[in-house]
Amino acid sequence: xxxxxxxxxxxxxxxxxxxxxxxxxxxxxxxxxxxxxxxxxxxxxxxxxxxxxxxxxxxxxxxxxxxxxxxxxxxxxxxxxxxxxxxxxxxxxxxxxxxxxxxxxxxxxxxxxxxxxxxxxxxxxxxxxxxxxxxxxxxxxxxxxxxxxxxxxxxxxxxxxxxxxxxxxxxxxxxxxxxxxxxxxxxxxxxxxxxxxxxxxxxxxxxxxxxxxxxxxxxxxxxxxxxxxxxxxxxx
Amino acid sequence: xxxxxxxxxxxxxxxxxxxxxxxxxxxxxxxxxxxxxxxxxxxxxxxxxxxxxxxxxxxxxxxxxxxxxxxxxxxxxxxxxxxxxxxxxxxxxxxxxxxxxxxxxxxxxxxxxxxxxxxxxxxxxxxxxxxxxxxxxxxxxxxxxxxxxxxxxxxxxxxxxxxxxxxxxxxxxxxxxxxxxxxxxxxxxxxxxxxxxxxxxxxxxxxxxxxxxxxxxxxxxxxxxxxxxxxxxxxxxxxxxxxxxxxxxxxxxx
Lengths: 236, 254
Description:
The complex is a heterodimer of chains A (236) and B (254).
Chain A: H1 3-21, H2 31-41, H3 45-58, H4 73-91, H5 97-107, H6 110-137, H7 141-150, H8 153-178, H9 182-205, H10 212-235
Helix pairs in contact in A: 1-2, 1-4, 1-8, 2-3, 2-4, 3-4, 3-9, 4-5, 4-6, 4-8, 5-9, 6-7, 6-8
Chain B: H1 9-18, H2 33-47, H3 51-61, H4 72-87, H5 94-129, H6 131-134, H7 137-164, H8 168-174, H9 177-208, H10 212-231, H11 236-253
C-alpha cells in the first residue's frame, strides 16, 4: 500500500474542493481536469483521464444557480479516479476498463453525498457570518473581514479526507477484484463503453441547447460516417 | 465637498485579487456578503481614514449580496466607483446600496446563462470529445480555452465597473452574451453527440473482442434510449446503472 498516494489523493482532493466554489473557480475542479491530474499523481494517468471523461459528460449539465446546490461533481471525480488508480496499483496488472467500471459504479454516488456535505457546511458558514456581523458591530473590522477566509478550510479537510479514503479503499478492493470470475470481468469491461455512451447522451441533454437532439444526432452521424470511411480505407 | 484619497493601483489590484475569494464563506443568509466586504476592505481602509466612517462603509456592504461570481467583478468595480464619490462627498451612501441591489439580479442571470449554462458545457464537451485524439492534453486545453474567456472577461468587467459606474450596464449589454451563449450550447450538443458515437465505436471495439460489432451497436442504441429516458425525467443514476447492468450481463453471458 502506498501511503504517499493516499496523501497525494487527499491533498489534490482538498485543493480542488476549495477551488470549486470558494476560490477562483478556474475549472481545475471539473471532472476532466481533477480526475486526470489525480490519475497522473497516483501513477495511472489513463485511468484518471477516462474516468474524468465519463464523469465530465455525466455532470456536464449541472450548474450552481443561485442558492440551489448541484451534486458535488468534484468529489465524485477525485474519489472515483483515486480509487481506480489505486485498484490498478494493487492488482499490479495495470489499468483496465473493468476496473474503471467498478470504480465508477462504486464511487459515482459521491456526487450526491457531496451535495449533502455542502449543505451541512453551510451551517458553519452561517456561523462565520454571525461572527462577522457581531465583530463589525463591535468595531473589530479586521476580524469581521477575516471570517471570509475561514470558510475555505472545511472544504479542504472534508473532501480531501474523502478522496484519501477512496484511494485507501482502492488498495483493498483491487485484490478482491482479481478473484472475480472471468465472465463477470468481461461484463464489467463491456459496461464502461456502455456507461460512456449513456454519459455522452446525458451530456447532449444537459447542453441546454434549444435543438439539442438535432445537433447531437448531427454530431453522431458525422462521426459514425467518418469512422466507417476510415475502416473502409483500412480494409483496402 | 471634501478631498478624499484616490485609490492606488496596488489597492485596486488587491481588491480584484481578493474578489476571487468572493464565495469563500458563502452562507444561506447573506450569501456572498462576507466575500464582498473582504474584497472591498483594502479600498475602504484607504478611502475612509476615519474609523467611524470606515465602520459605516463596512456595515453597508455586510447586507445580503448574491450574484454570479465572475460578473460580480463588475459590481465590485462599480462599488469602488461609487465609494470614491461618497468619500469625496459627491453622493450619498444610499446610491451604492441601490446600485448593488439593482444590478446583482440581472447580472447573475446573465452570468449563469453564459458561463455556467453555455461556456462550461461547450468547452467541456469539445475538450472531452478531443480526448481520443489529444489524450491528457485535452484537460490542459480545457483549462486554457475556458480561462482565456473567463479571466479576460472577469478583468474587463472589473475595469468597466471601476471606470463607468452606473453606465456599465450598457457596456455589458454590448458584449451580447446571450446570443453567444446560445451558439455555444449548440456546439456542446453536437460535440456530445459526436463523442457518444466515437465512444461506442472505439471503446466498444477495444472491449468487445469477437462480439465488437454487437457491443458497438448496443452502445449506440443505449445512447439514444438513455437520451429519451432522461427526457422523460428518469434520474441520470438510474439510466447509468441500468445501462451498466445490461452491458455487464451481455458481456458475462454472451
